[in-house]
Amino acid sequence: MATPQLMTESLYRLQERVEQARAQTDLLFALLRPDAIYDRPIPERHRLIFYLGHLEAFDWNLLGRDTFGLASTHPVFDKLFAFGIDPVDGQLPSDQPADWPSVAEIQAYNTRLRETIDAALRAPSSKPAAEASGTSLDALLNVAIEHRLMHAETLAYLLHQLPVERKIAPRILPPRALKTPGSQSAGPRMAAIPEGEATLGMRSERKEFGWDNEFEELKVSVPRFSIGAYPVTNGEYLEFVRSGGYEEKAHWSAEDRQWIASQGISHPLFWKPSSNHSAANHNNWEYRGMFTQIPLPLDGPVYVSHAEASAYTRWAKRALPNEAQWHRAAYGTPAESECLYPWGDVGPSAERGNFDFAHWDPTPVSAYPSGQSAFGVNDLLGNGWEWTSTPFAPFPGFKPFAFYPGYSANFFDGKHFVMKGGSQRTAACMLRRSFRNWFQPRYPYVYAKFRTVEE
């Protein structure tokens, strides 16, 4: 059973990162009106109160219980908050607010767990039991950090679905990412990608942290193709909507057609019909931002489900890129070398893209020219995950984590598709080339954009 290898980061630095990750999720809960904590913004997901306990319970079960062998002070909560929901089978949860503990009880539980885990990490005599089986404490702390940061993004899109009056906007917001409608500065230009090789995943010999689905490294030969130099914008998708794209059966698979019909879906979830409908108003849509609603920014990326993205590509007589094509366009170079990031080998920074919690909402797709790839493809990292046509599946040589065997393997079911890139609420550490995200095709809530390819 393969296990993560020792990291080069010091334990002290990892503890700092744990604190930073906690601050990110604490901030999100602080955005809620007191009575909104029991809301369920997305029908398929838990109520928000679950996530208040889940983050600490996960850390406790992984670190306090399984790593340091400490005795639990609340086994009921440890189990109650252990696992979330993956709504694949259409079964909606039916629990009521009264079924959950009080906020005060959960906060007391959280405080106790944090103090106990932190004390164990500081104790020089502590010998993690997990290290005896080959799993390093560094690796487990990386798991805890990235799990929490993933939930910082999940909580963001959950809160995005709450009415504005159920949230408390931060006193100081970053400059507004969204723009009002205008001419699209990023046209539908295609970038030509020559034949070449794409490297997916990573080698375990590198001894760097990655989730189990990132191993082992896989080299793929990619024939030449063309890809959108920018993601599909709201303005471009608006043409699809106005052409009757949601009504034309030929654009949709049978399953996707049944989904939009049963749910009454006729436009992207993040759009809302404008209150100012008139013949003179060329744009009858608004964008539902995290804290405000504005006229639909035509130069922003459209956020849609995989089903909707696929329908658009059929209408446009193109296709979604597969995972290898996306990698080739993002990390390849004319010299046949590959970069760690689209712009080169230096790490992520604020001028390269809309990521690492910089904004609550998307920016124009052309806002970060210094983040483009060697082939002139823009907005690859941040501003919204990007759908691919590749079903989520293991690379050859995949072995599940011994301490978390179901993390990836439970989703190798043909019902999820690989996503690449990252959103504005994706932490910088998860912008590494090998990182893979995945969602089911008829789930419209995530910050997910797409671009098209021609082969």
Instruction: Tell me which CATH architecture of the largest domain applies here.
Output: Alpha-Beta Complex
Task: Report the β-strand fraction as a percent range.
Answer: 5-15%
Succession of helices and strands: HHHHHEEEEHHEEEHHEHEEEE
Rg (C-alpha, Å): 22 Å
Number of strands: 12
Task: Write a concise keyword list for the protein shown above.
alpha+beta; 455 residues; single chain; Four Helix Bundle (Hemerythrin (Met), subunit A); three-stranded antiparallel beta sheet; globular; disordered N terminus; four-stranded mixed beta sheet
How would you characterize this protein structure?
This protein is of the alpha+beta class and 455 residues long. It folds into two domains: 11-166, Four Helix Bundle (Hemerythrin (Met), subunit A), CATH 1.20.120.450; 190-233 and 305-454, Alpha-Beta Complex (paralog of FGE (formylglycine-generating enzyme)). It has helices at residues 11-30, 48-65, 75-80, 103-122, 137-160, 234-242, 254-263, 306-315, 323-331, 406-409; strands at residues 190-193, 196-200, 218-222, 225-228, 271-273, 285-288, 293-295, 385-391, 417-420, 437-439, 448-449, 453-454. The strands form four sheets. Strands 10-9-8-11 form a four-stranded mixed sheet, with no helix packed on it. Helix 1 (11-30) runs parallel beside helix 5 (137-160), helix 2 runs parallel beside helix 4 and helix 2 packs antiparallel against helix 5. It is globular, with a radius of gyration of 22 Å. The chain starts with 10 loop residues before the first helix and ends with a strand.
